[in-house]
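User: Can you predict the 3D structure of Response regulator receiver protein? Sequence below.
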Amino acid sequence: MPGHPPEREPATGEGVTAELRAIDERAMRLERVDRRQCAALVADDMPTMRLLLAQSLREAGFDNVVQAADGAAALAQLERHGCELILADWNMPGVDGLELLGRVRAHPRHGDVIFIMVTAENADDRVLQAIGHGLDDYLTKPVSPEKLSRRLELILARRRAAARAARLEAMGLPERAMDEYLMAARNNPQARWPQFGLGELLLRHGRLDEARQCYQRLLRQSPQAAAAMVGLGRVALQGGDAASAQSLFQWAREANPAYGGAVDALTELHLAQGRPEQAAEVLAQADDMPGGLGAHRLARQARLFHDLGQARQADQALQRALAQDPALADGPEGLLAARCGLALGRPAKAVQALRRLARQTDQPRLKIEAWLMLAEAHLSQGRPEQAEEVFARMAQADAWPAGQRPFALHRLHAVAAAAYLRQGRPQAAAELVAVSRLMAPDDAENLAWLDHLTSQLDARPADAPAALASAEEYGRRGLELAAQGLHDQALAQYRLGLAVEPEAGRLHFNVAKLRLRAGQNEAAAESLALARRHGLAQGDWELLERLAELLLSLDDALAARKILLDILELAPGRPTAQALLDQI
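Assistant: Sure. Here are the predicted structure tokens for Response regulator receiver protein:
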């Protein structure tokens, strides 16, 4: 800004961060769109309109134009071609333009594409509401190449200025970032976006008086500018005047009921002030407006209902959100759906959703939460064997992205102990507390948590093993107990051994035999698969031969043959393996 002290711009490569790289990647995408060197996507359910829009794009300079007849096909084309510009009709069957917008913005790789909605002569309120909240702009039909080029020029100018300002701010040069918006305002005196960008930047840096002046200028230009009222409300809130902020947010909502920013601001204010009921009421009132709530606000409403103990209302809001944007089921909303299902007596559906989420997500924290909730769901339904399998799977390094567990094993045992305790299984909890304590006697934070759990147990720590035995020792004890017909006690010893060494293939094999004896064939198959995997990884040919022999006794010659061929390929000349193979 004028008068600010000179600042040194870091040299190339200095202070390069992930944030800066992301900003630079966005800037490069804008250049490709400007040079017409990117793929463009047209999504419209009317074949004639698709052809006309594609022709307008080609005449505007885009040679690579792909088409889709609906939102679902558009997502597939986006994934396949990496399009960087989308023209989408807002009113399509199935996944409409607004739902497509939400799913594109949530995409991990393509969320920053330029997105222009195509509407009829009078744009729907929901389309207008989306501008500034994911939608770059809209065009009314018919769309000529000239109209499209002019609109793209404005969008690119806005995005470029925002990218330059974001880069300067990330480099620690906020004054230079502010200059970018001031220059944009001088070059575009009728445009409001430079003032909004400047106001948000000033607010982030605590320059409340200047931010207030910025939003007041916007209101003088347009007295009903709801976004400017919300900006003034945020200035008041950051200055400690929550009452004025609330009045301004309400004023903004009354001035433009379709403006979602006012709804969000009021909701956040009530939550920050400890008034979740009022926050839920704000969203309910917005839902009564034409068009209702979008997927993400419905998901927020569902979370509020859940936190207020209103499981049925939470489930109803969430199902509407998922109907609008099914991709939400792959995130935290998938966990919320499972919680609602469990609360409403639909455990089977909840378990199915949790299994899917734990298997598909690459987000470690989300995967942890899904697995833990799945284990507790099994315990609550009287299925401890399935819960044990979940915890065993969590302990496997190959169950995690890049083969790296995001936690220490002793912490997993502590968390599992808490789950068993909550579900009324104190003996299993006591065993896991003992294992966790003895595996990491120097982890003070974990020990404090274990002390808390121990205080809730009927069994005291003295009932637990005095020392942490080796996996082999637990295996030996388990075999002795199994020989006496004490299968439950044997299984407990094997479980303790696997807690110490999750990749002990022989213990998995012993667990599988107990599962088979109990008629738990599905759980046995999982344990056998783990025994095979770890036996191969560790070169335990004797274990693999015993495994093949067991499979032959179960009339599964095909699986046995595959294991024996693997053995003989990796360890040629083993007579036992060859003799078993000759029997098949």
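Residues 539-584 form one domain. Strands lie at 40-43, 65-68, 85-89, 114-119, 137-140.
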